[in-house]
């Protein structure tokens, strides 16, 4: 099996466009409102870079774009994740091991930098269950479901890190935008790697706050 | 309404270009991404020293780039952290055999952006250690996980670490020393008038004539307490006592920084200095080094901060070591004039 990295990132970019309004609304509740913009911009720049250099490893291209060209803090943290995945894919002979170890290393880097633990209402809450599924040898679709469920569960926790920590209970009931946005990477990966899996569409998975899917 | 005299487009970039042109023998400008590096450095230094943070605190950090202090400084936008790419590229430019030391003021954005850069540097095989400056007593609280802010002590830490690095110490030794310098440093700040808001002009917050903000931050964060302005002698004594009480053992003396917050005159700063020296003399605390001036302002805030570092045997030589930077007054001549 060879997973087409460029297809994963192009699909992730489409998902970021579909979810842009919802991610922006979520971040207006819990942050400074720019996460939807930053994720979409990072992925649009990635797609442009892939068009310009189609023979570069796509995840490595995306990692550089998110680290170098995206503002805020969540975008460059996603860049750390993508860079770790690209390094691991280049080293591991087995592609599944490459993704699993890359997510593990990337999550470790994000936790070192952001000093966030599971339950702090950050992207870590989507990444930990995704890592556990992948390292445990589960399917990409299971990792995607775990990441989406982890992101959804952040609706029930108060923030202790990041900007949302300043506003306490006001974020209860809405999931963390960073966790939601990073979960969509695993959704795109599963869609490309296991097209037979039933995962649902982005519009249902990331509804506008206040609406029922 | 008062406005800052800055261009609307890219005010920091324009100012940093002007800074570099003002000090052509000392610093080199790098524009994409934006940072400055020292032109003349001590070959004995084994690790490059990089600092940076939001702009609006000049001369911090670029003013302390040069021989004996920083190898590079990375300016963010006004009161905003620099981008990780600036830190990453600046660190690559000045890394030495043992790698690079980051001096970071304790703010969430700075910690994350320097942290991302550190991860990238390590992936490139460049060793990185971080020294976190957290001297501001006003933000000491057991209730939050964020800890004390980094403020005036940054200048003292940058000088001591620069001196230590030029004595040929290893990266790990510098990181441990830097942590010790920070643990031995505390500050408190007061303001009588807020800084001009860079985005909309006018005062960023309003104080009545009889009020002072006690424990103000360097980004115009309001203090926990607004107090009725005490008499000059009482205010300076209270600040001195608060810093001293928070310091470890001061028997080896202190380095004292009386720092203007932007709009405070030398007339005032030297008067504050004289009064603090009187209090320290009375308490029997030896002052082994001092710095009086505008070193870590909050744009044009009217106010001042008091920082003290409780020195340990062996540290004073690094404070007095030669330096040649745009903004740090030579401590060698201070020693000769004693």
Automatic annotation (TrEMBL), chain A:
PROSITE patterns the UniProt entry points to: DHAL
Organism superkingdom: Bacteria
Keywords attached to this entry: Kinase, Transferase
GO cellular component labels: cytosol
Record carries keyword Kinase: yes
UniProt-listed InterPro entries: DhaL_dom, DhaL_dom_sf, Dihydroxyacetone_Kinase
A GO term, aspect molecular function: glycerone kinase activity
Domain DhaL as annotated: residue spans: 3-191
GO biological process entries: glycerol catabolic process
Listed name of the protein: DAK2 domain-containing protein
Organism name: Streptomyces corynorhini
Automatic annotation (TrEMBL), chain B:
InterPro entries for the chain: DhaK_dom, Dihydroxyacetone_Kinase
Gene Ontology CC terms: cytosol
Gene Ontology molecular function, alphabetical: glycerone kinase activity
Keyword terms of this UniProt record: Kinase, Transferase
Ranges for domain DhaK: 7-328
Gene3D superfamilies per record: Dihydroxyacetone kinase, domain 1 (3.40.50.10440), Dihydroxyacetone kinase, domain 2 (3.30.1180.20)
GO biological process: glycerol catabolic process
TM region positions: none
UniProt name for this protein: Dihydroxyacetone kinase
């Amino acid at each position: 099996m060879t997973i087409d990295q460029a297809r994963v990132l192009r699909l992730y970019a489409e998902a970021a466009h579909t979810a842009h309004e919802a991610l922006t609304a979520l971040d207006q509740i819990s942050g400074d409102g720019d996460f939807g913009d930053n994720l979409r911009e990072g992925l649009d720049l990635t797609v442009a870079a892939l068009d310009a250099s189609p023979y570069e490893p796509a995840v490595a291209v995306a990692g550089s774009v998110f680290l170098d060209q995206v503002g805020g803090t969540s975008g460059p943290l996603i860049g750390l994740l993508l860079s770790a995945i690209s390094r691991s894919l280049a080293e591991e002979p087995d592609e599944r091991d490459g993704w699993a170890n890359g997510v593990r290393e990337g999550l470790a880097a994000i936790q070192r930098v952001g000093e966030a633990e599971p339950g702090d209402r950050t992207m870590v809450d989507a990444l930990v269950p995704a890592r556990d599924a992948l390292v445990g040898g589960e399917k990409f679709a299971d990792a995607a479901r775990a990441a989406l469920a982890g992101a959804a569960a952040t609706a029930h926790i108060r923030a202790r890190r990041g900007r949302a920590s300043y506003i306490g209970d006001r974020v209860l009931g809405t999931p963390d935008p960073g966790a939601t946005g990073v979960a969509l990477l695993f959704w795109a990966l599963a869609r490309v790697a296991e097209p037979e899996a039933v995962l649902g569409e982005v519009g249902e998975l990331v509804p506008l706050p206040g609406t029922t899917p | 309404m008062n406005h800052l005299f800055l261009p609307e487009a890219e005010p920091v970039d324009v100012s940093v270009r002007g800074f570099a042109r003002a000090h052509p023998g000392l610093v080199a400008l790098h524009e994409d991404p934006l940072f400055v590096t020292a032109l003349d450095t001590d070959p004995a230094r084994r690790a490059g020293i990089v600092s940076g943070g939001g702009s609006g605190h000049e001369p911090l950090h670029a003013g302390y780039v040069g021989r004996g202090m920083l190898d590079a400084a990375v300016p963010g936008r006004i009161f905003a952290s620099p981008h990780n790419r600036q830190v990453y590229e600046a660190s690559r430019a000045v890394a030495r055999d043992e790698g690079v030391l980051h001096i970071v003021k304790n703010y969430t954005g700075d910690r994350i952006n320097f942290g991302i850069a550190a991860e990238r540097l390590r992936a490139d095989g460049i060793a990185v250690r971080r020294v976190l400056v957290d001297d501001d007593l006003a933000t000491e609280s057991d209730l939050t996980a964020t800890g004390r802010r980094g403020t005036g002590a940054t200048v003292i830490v940058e000088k001591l670490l620069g001196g230590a690095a030029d004595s040929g110490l290893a990266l790990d030794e510098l990181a441990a020393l830097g942590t010790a310098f920070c643990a031995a440093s505390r500050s408190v700040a007061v303001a009588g008038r807020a800084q001009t808001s860079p985005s909309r002009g006018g005062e960023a917050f309003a104080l009545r004539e009889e009020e002072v903000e006690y424990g103000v931050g360097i980004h115009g964060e309001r203090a926990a307490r607004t107090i009725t302005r005490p008499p000059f002698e009482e205010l300076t004594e209270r600040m001195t006592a608060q810093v001293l009480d928070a310091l470890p053992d001061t028997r080896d003396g202190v380095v004292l920084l009386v720092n203007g917050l932007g709009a405070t005159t030398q007339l005032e700063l030297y008067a504050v200095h004289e009064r603090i020296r009187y209090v320290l003399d009375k308490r029997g605390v030896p002052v082994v080094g001092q710095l009086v001036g505008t070193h870590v302002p909050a744009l044009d805030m009217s106010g001042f901060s008091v920082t003290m570092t409780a020195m340990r045997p062996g540290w004073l030589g690094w404070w007095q070591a030669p330096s040649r930077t745009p903004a740090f007054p030579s401590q060698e001549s201070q020693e000769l004039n004693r």
